[in-house]
């Protein structure tokens, strides 16, 4: 996903039943969406630099390095197992495999 975000955005839109039109592709709408949703763009928004959660924490707590596999530095084995169970349960019958 990280290497080819436009390809995966297109697949996601098709999966959701909302494919992009050839005109949208020609107008580089997908590239614009990828840029707007990029880690660099989102982490640099003013609200994410100065905003606070109701608990008082900075919004920056939602942003990490954005590197593949970095979750291993933040989640315990128990957390990973619980997340795996939840994903399997929620996506049961969807055709997605984990």
TrEMBL record:
Pfam families: Sulfotransfer_1 (PF00685). GO terms for molecular function: sulfotransferase activity. Signal peptide: none annotated. Its EC number is 2.8.2.-. Coiled coil: none annotated. Residues 1-95 form the Sulfotransferase domain. Keywords: Transferase. It is an enzyme of class 2 (transferase). It comes from the Eukaryota. InterPro entries: P-loop_NTPase, Sulfotransferase_dom. Belongs to the sulfotransferase 1 family. This is Sulfotransferase. It comes from Lactuca saligna (Willowleaf lettuce).
